[in-house]
Amino acid sequence: MARDTEVLVLGGGSTGCGIARDLAMRGLEVTLVERGNLTDGTTGRMHGLLHSGGRYAVSDQASATECIEENEILRDIAGHCVEETGGLFVQRPEDSDEYFREKLEGCRECGIPARVLSGAEAREVEPYLAEDVKRAIEVPDGAVDPFRLCVANAIGAENHGARVETHAEVIDLLREGDDIYGVEVRHESGPGKRTHATPGATEEITADYVVNATGAWAGQIGAMADLEVEVRPSKGVMTIMNVRQVDTVINRCRPKGDADIVVPHETTAILGTTDEEVSDPDDYPEEGWEVDQMIDTLSELVPILEEARTIRSFWGVRPLYEPPGTGTQDPTDITRDFFLLDHTDRDGVSGMSSIVGGKFTTYRAMAEEISDHVCEKLGVTAGCATADEPLPGSENIETLEAGMDDFGLRSPVARRSKQRLGSRASEVLETDDANPVICQCEGVTRAEIRDAVSQSGSDLNAVRIRTRASMGNCQGGFCCQNMANELHPTYDEETVRASLDELFQERWKGERHALWGEQLSQAMLNYALHATTMNRDRDPASAEAAVDFAAFDGGGR
Amino acid sequence: MAIEDDVLVIGGGLAGATAALAAAEEDVRVRLVSYKQSTLRHASGLIDILGYTPAGEGPLVDPFDALEGLPEGHPYERVGTEAVREALEFFDDIAGDAYDGAHTDANALVPTHGGTVKPTARYPASTAAGLASDDRDTLLVGFETLPDFEAPLAAAHLEAAGAPFAARGVTVRFPGLVRDDAKVTRYAHLLDHDEAVTTAAGETTARDALAETVRGHLEDETRVGFPAILGDDHAAEVRADLGERLAVDVFEVPMGPPSLPGMRLEDLLYDALEDAGVRVTTGVPVVDYETESDGTDATGPDRIDRVIVDRHGAEVPHRADQYVLATGGLVGKGVDSERERVFEPIFDCHVPHAADRYEWFVDDVFGDQPYARFGLPVDRDLRPLDAGDEPEFRNLRAAGAVLGGYDFAAEKSGSGVSLATGYAAGQRAGREGGE
């Protein structure tokens, strides 16, 4: 029977998009479906650390080795998503010397370049480190933009013929006897690019092989075909600061613990994290004490964090997994390794494998291994090329950068735009039309917003993750409206209004966790701008009752 | 040696300026000190009294009708409806021709840059021809380089809101601008001074070029709306000039920050302060205060003897008989917060709030937000009250957004509360200070 596609990938996170691109580059026909926007699950909810492997150099050397290998590959193939910040494992006086030594040795055993800095040297690198830090190990940690990287993989997959459907939730696995042959999805709008207010259809997509790359949601997918996937979702909080208190990744050098990392990320610094098992990856408590813990504990390393402004917090859910019967109690002890569960071997059900566990830094290697497995199943011999082929945006980046002008933009805006767009900068920013700045905090121009809209439809959150617009200090208070304006006239007024409301509410979601001091002041300003001047909270266009215009003042002159 | 006045107003926004002007009516020596730029430049310049009840009913045709029904503790309930009317008349006198709306108690519905309408009691003359209850067909003009206002979208939005006229929007290039990211003050300046600009047709002036740009888009509309950038010091002239060239009425659509109508209102108030002889010192924060140490009985509230003003590093005491606190709300930093508490930073006046900061908000961004009501509770004399409902000080009154118990953004009552409480606090401070 002819199937709609050769391979159907479920899940638009880094793993799913990585697999889609890998297989598409090998010449397979690939369809990817994602419930929300790309990165909506775990990928878009991480701290943006590109691991050197140092973190696992004592506890899990296999992961550490894989991290440093992939770290080096990503610097090459995804240069426009990576900032080579370097990282420090910082020891405070109360932290164990023994562990510091083990960490250093571990790094060396795993091939992670590591160098010891004295406390004074470490503070020279990062002046806001506490004055009593004892010493530090310098490693090649980096910062990576998970949104940009994931989207670049999706674009790469599409460039090789893949179909990527976002806002397409899997509502059933199609199973006949012991064979899984596809899924039924519900499109929120369409199929195709999302357009608010366009009714969605359900669609059956059949495939020769299905890859369940839904991470923390893999258990839910498996259950649709009566398969048990013992994923153990574990939540972690991340708190975003309004500026970069540090330009280097700062790790606490101690065995394990919550609140032990600060990652500089674009204009911000991200504090992380915690590790606590949850039963439902879509519904778990997000609490203030978790935010307080980030600030209070990390202030031991970087004291100015205590008084600094946070702009929002968010939680992510790790897709941890361990084989049945392992019985680890503490989620921090569960391995970060990934598992490929072939349901033929495991459950006697053919046509699908599930991927669980793993971590962002090694997404490419995971995708490669899974793609190899899929190719073997389908009898395809083509090899993996993703370790050498740059992602869209990272092709010939140095040569291109040298030749690029400023596109008529002021230099900070031009610089940041080019960093985000990489080798796509000329194609996106060269325009004869007016190109004003839409988001001042992040320096995003109309041309970049429209490029994102052309990729993702009327969904302004999809525009946000592609451009960073509305992700700065004002959290969209000043720019959400302007972003929405760019949807028109491609999309009509009602669609624009719905999309704006959705983005504004999404921004509020994370901001709620930062509501004191400057950010409470900012929140009140945002509320006042949108409610007082624009009357968006009581917009007659959205209200049920019609306004009797004739009863109001029609002018006195 | 301290600087001595009868009335000292702290805060230079709408409430503080109104308080100082009202106090000055009483023939006393009045000083106004302010620290940061006021929030007027963020505001639309519209003078709203009440657009919606606290329960969300509205838009209200007659704001005065609804004032009587406001809950106890609302700033309007504290000062009383009559004071609101008097304050508005006081404003009308100050504003003169610059504002309209005094001919009726009914609210006006003014189209703003988001495209929908907002209820307001008074509006700048520049917006008068754009009222949504006026049924003349309307052309809205936006500029390619001004992303805050998408005219065709705003026109569609007005129609979706049910406005009783046909609205059409066009987007044009603003003649004479060199950069795509010019500030709104640059647009205003070009028109204010009618600067020479070069267009495809040759050398001309900014107003002429703009009129020519719009002319080709005009069909049978009799009014044309522009984003609120039509001049600053000579706004009326710019508007009249454009109207004459196009043979239509020209109006402005209020915009977000930086807002020229807000800045024009600020200029108007500061001119009035100067005319009234109020001594104004800007850019200086009040950093501390001292109470009178003797002569007060032990049981009653303290009197403030002096406040300490930081004048560029020098701590200068300012003494007055009466003080008015008009430092603004969360935005103006008259109300501040930390993870554990919400407080008033100068006098540490009581600010009611839940102990758990997760009870300061609700999850719907436009829901009934507790934080929006943060501020000082006051008695009917506008004196801040402590946790036991006793006045914090004998001679301190509060006005404007520093007050609590109301959500100005949801009610569309910010300007009205600032005017009414500023007027009442200033008048009473002036009377007592003159005794």
Helix and strand layout, with pairings?
The complex is a heterodimer of chains A (557) and B (435).
Chain A: E1 5-10, H1 14-25, E2 30-33, E3 49-50, H2 61-77, E4 82-83, E5 87-91, H3 97-109, E6 115-118, H4 119-125, E7 135-139, E8 142-144, H5 146-159, E9 163-165, E10 168-176, E11 179-187, E12 202-212, H6 218-223, E13 231-241, E14 249-252, E15 261-265, E16 268-272, E17 276-277, H7 288-298, E18 310-321, E19 338-342, H8 343-347, E20 352-357, H9 363-378, H10 397-403, H11 411-421, H12 425-429, E21 437-439, E22 444-445, H13 446-456, H14 460-467, H15 480-485, H16 493-511, H17 517-533
Chain B: E1 3-10, H1 14-24, E2 30-34, H2 63-67, H3 75-79, H4 81-95, E3 99-100, E4 108-111, E5 117-120, E6 123-124, E7 138-143, H5 151-160, E8 167-172, H6 184-192, E9 196-199, E10 202-205, H7 206-215, E11 223-227, H8 235-246, E12 249-253, H9 260-275, E13 279-282, E14 286-291, E15 304-311, E16 314-325, E17 336-337, E18 342-343, E19 396-398, H10 408-411, H11 414-433
Helix pairs in contact in B: 1-9, 1-11, 4-11, 7-8
Distance between the termini of chain A: 77 Å
Kindly provide the name of the CATH class of the largest domain in chain B. Answer: Alpha Beta
Question: Residue share in helices of chain A?
Answer: 25-40%
For CATH, the homologous superfamily of the largest domain in chain B is named as FAD/NAD(P)-binding domain
Q: What's the CATH topology name of the largest domain in chain A? A: FAD/NAD(P)-binding domain
Question: Can you tell me about this structure?
Answer:
The complex is a heterodimer of chains A (557) and B (435). Chain A is an alpha+beta fold. Chain A has three domains: 5-42 and 147-230 and 336-378, FAD/NAD(P)-binding domain (3-Layer(bba) Sandwich); 83-142 and 233-318, 2-Layer Sandwich (D-Amino Acid Oxidase, Chain A, domain 2), CATH 3.30.9; 397-538, no CATH class. Chain A has 17 helices and 22 strands. In chain A, helix 1 (14-25) runs parallel beside helix 5 (146-159), helix 1 packs across helix 9 (363-378) and helix 13 crosses helix 14. Chain B has 435 residues and is of the alpha/beta class. Chain B has two domains: 3-98 and 262-433, FAD/NAD(P)-binding domain (3-Layer(bba) Sandwich), CATH 3.50.50.60; 113-253, no CATH class. Chain B contains eleven helices and 19 strands. In chain B, the strands form six sheets. In chain B, strands 1, 2, 13, 14, 15, 16 and 19 form a seven-stranded mixed sheet that branches. In chain B, strands 8-7-11-12 form a four-stranded parallel sheet. Chain B has a two-stranded antiparallel sheet with strand order 3-6. In chain B, helix 4 crosses helix 11. The mean pLDDT of chain B is 95. At the A-B interface, helix 15, helix 16 and helix 17 of A face strand 5, helix 5, strand 17 and helix 10 of B. Chain B: Residues 6-417 form the FAD-dependent oxidoreductase 2 FAD-binding domain.
